[in-house]
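Quick one, probably user error.
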């Protein structure tokens, strides 16, 4: 059985885990980084660059910079396709076992940093939108992958360019019926950036965005919105359902502007802007280390309680945030880890 010893164990090799590992490495702190997937990056490799004639500050390109920095870090040991199977805190040290193809092992560390990311909302859990049933109802993540792989957006039913597209915001978020009252904080950003990208590539495409409120994001947000509102229609309501129309169009039913009557409109393609949900690993950490979850199911943000035990959080394990926010927090968390290691009880 293999044995691993390091100052810090980081679980999760997404953008937050990578950033924290690089930051700790620069502070001459040895790190073991464990990721259960076959590659680093978390969800970010699924996302497309959203630049039009100018950068839209989506942050996707920052992953390449982070991976390059990690490749040059001499005191970070990376293990892919590896999963922590047991984890305990004993005498101010974290003892863990892990499994991976070909065998497993055990290790110990003086501090633990959790950066296991999030789970996208399952669009199937909003059955009124008929995701998985109507071919021209897709998620924002589906659109991200399509744009990344092909550089264009087409209707899945016949692979033609859509002439009309509806973005539906807050799918899975701000939904009391699902017990998800929280805002995912990233859906507006990725939806509007992709809408602008589609208009840039295909100016004739008519795009409507159905929304509750628009979450501000990025620098110069007011200028961004001013430009966006000139080419995209904003409808402040959330459709109640989606039905099949002729020629594989989708019919959206929504409240009219008077708030009293309802209306229907057909679109070639509907995009469900799915939100950020708690990651599947959080129950494991709750059970093994007694870490509390907040009312939304994420790890509690009472970080001072965790840090006194040598446990630190980075990225979306603490709640929804975008790429830039995850990077900023990961740097800050790395500084907290370094400070703890200087004063930790032996």
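Nope, works fine. Designed sequence:
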């Amino acid at each position: 059985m293999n044995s691993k010893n390091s100052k810090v164990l980081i679980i999760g090799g997404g953008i937050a885990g990578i950033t924290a590992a690089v930051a700790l490495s620069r502070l001459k702190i040895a790190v073991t980084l464990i990721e259960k997937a076959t590659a680093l990056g978390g969800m970010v490799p699924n996302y497309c660059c959203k630049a039009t004639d100018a950068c839209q500050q989506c942050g996707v390109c920052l992953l390449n910079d982070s991976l390059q920095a990690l490749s040059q870090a001499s005191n970070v040991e990376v293990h892919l396709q590896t999963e922590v199977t047991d984890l305990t805190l004993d005498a101010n040290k974290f003892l863990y076992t892990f499994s991976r193809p070909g065998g497993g092992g055990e290790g110990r560390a003086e501090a633990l940093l959790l950066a296991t990311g999030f789970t996208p909302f399952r669009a199937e859990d909003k059955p009124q939108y008929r995701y998985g049933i109507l071919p021209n109802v897709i998620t924002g993540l589906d659109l991200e992958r399509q744009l990344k792989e092909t550089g264009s957006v087409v209707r899945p039913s016949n692979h033609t360019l859509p002439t009309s597209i509806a973005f539906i915001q807050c799918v899975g978020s701000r939904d009391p019926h699902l017990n998800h009252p929280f805002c995912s904080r990233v859906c507006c950003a990725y939806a509007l950036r992709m809408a602008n990208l589609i208009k840039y590539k295909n100016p004739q495409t008519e795009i409507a965005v159905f929304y509750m409120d628009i979450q501000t994001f990025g620098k110069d947000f007011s200028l961004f919105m001013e430009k966006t509102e000139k080419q995209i229609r904003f409808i402040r309501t959330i459709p109640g359902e989606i039905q099949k129309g002729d020629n594989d169009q989708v019919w959206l039913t929504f409240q009219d502007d008077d708030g009293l009557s309802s209306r229907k409109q057909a679109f070639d393609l509907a995009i469900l802007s799915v939100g950020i949900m708690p990651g599947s690993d959080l129950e494991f950490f709750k059970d093994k280390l007694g870490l509390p979850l907040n009312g939304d199911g994420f790890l509690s943000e009472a970080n001072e309680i965790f840090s006194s035990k040598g446990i630190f959080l980075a990225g979306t394990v603490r709640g929804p945030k975008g790429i830039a926010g995850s990077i900023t927090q990961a740097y800050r968390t790395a500084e907290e880890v370094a400070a703890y290691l200087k004063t930790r009880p032996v």
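The chain has a mean pLDDT of 94.
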